[in-house]
Design a protein that fits this description.
about 45% helix; 14 helices; 2 domains; about 300 residues; Spore Coat Polysaccharide Biosynthesis Protein SpsA, Chain A; about 15% strand; 8-stranded mixed beta sheet; globular
Length: about 300
């Protein structure tokens, strides 16, 4: 790998006039000397494009009719010339030194396909509200617990994009998770135990309520897709029921406002793997008990609170 390999950063943007400036500046101020920065306006109706054009001499930009994040990111993949690629959301600034740290990690281990760091949760004003130390990479656990380990600040080799064909356009909400699950079948990932990125939670973020059943259904279609793939390793096939159980649990959790749909998803989760529900997390048990036995669940929660006071 070259000493100063070209790194391409792609930022898809839709109606982020209030936040995109901070993100653009966070990329342009990186201390790594060889960055290709592509910012793609996905048909914004606010001042987003106007702000992007202010930096047109320092980045590559394009604007097109609204097609959604997945297709916009895929366009960025086609435009990218770098050996290493990262997608930085328009409201999630990178932290100083992130790109240099990421390149060094790839350089020190040429076999790596993906690297991802710890990250900071921030609010509308950029105030840190939480420090997220992500788990060490384990493909089976990512699939078993239906937990997307790579988050903000994840970068990958361009060869991976060629191998996978980019993001799957059938997914509107879980396209990144699908990408990581398929990527894990190609080559190794590594966690960088440093805070190098941010994830902003703000009023403009897409809420669970807005995604609702559409996102829930995508989680199920995602595991259907993975386990329909040919030549999966025996270790992967052995955790199929656990993976479905976790996916159905999250689908139930996401089904806000649809009582019967949530019950159905939780029921399916239990059927696939009761052990997964019992041993994963107390919160899972509480949520399912509350759905099927609200009175019993309330008593258990009350008992727990009383015991903490003793």
């Amino acid at each position: 790998m070259k000493t100063n390999s070209l790194v391409t950063i792609i930022t898809p943007a839709y109606n982020r006039a209030d936040l995109i400036t901070k993100t653009i500046k966070s990329v342009l101020s990186q201390d790594y000397p060889n960055i290709e920065y592509i910012v793609l306006d996905d048909g914004s109706t606010d001042e987003t494009l106007k702000i992007i054009k202010k930096y047109k001499r320092k980045l590559i930009w394009e604007s097109h009719a609204n097609v959604g994040e997945t297709k916009t990111v895929n366009l960025g993949f086609k435009m990218a010339k770098g050996d290493i690629i990262g997608v930085v959301n328009s409201d999630d600034p990178l932290l100083p030194g992130a790109v240099k740290e990421i390149v060094n990690t790839f350089r020190n281990n040429p076999k790596l396909m993906v690297v991802y760091p710890d990250w900071k949760m921030i609010d509308q004003n950029g105030k840190v509200t939480g420090l997220i130390k992500v788990p060490e990479y384990n493909y089976l656990n990512m699939l078993r617990w239906h937990y997307c380990m790579p988050g903000p600040g994840a970068f990958f080799r361009k060869s991976l994009v060629r191998k996978l064909g980019g993001r799957d356009t059938q997914f509107k909400y879980v396209g990144d998770f699908d990408f990581w699950l398929r990527a894990g079948l190609v080559g190794p990932f590594a966690r960088i135990p440093k805070f190098l990125a941010t994830f902003r939670v703000h009023p403009g973020s897409a809420s669970v309520g807005k995604k609702g059943n559409l996102m829930a259904e995508e989680h199920i279609r995602l595991v259907n897709k993975i386990f329909s793939m040919k030549d999966l390793l025996p270790d992967i096939l052995r955790i199929k029921n656990e993976s479905y159980s976790s996916a159905y649990y999250y689908a139930g959790f996401l089904s806000v406002g649809d009582h019967w749909k949530r019950k159905y998803y939780y029921y399916r989760s239990i059927l696939f793997s009761p052990i997964t529900i019992i041993f994963k997390h107390q919160k899972w048990i509480n949520n399912i008990l509350f759905e099927f036995f609200p009175f019993l669940s309330a008593l258990l929660i009350l008992k727990s609170k009383l015991l903490k006071r003793v």
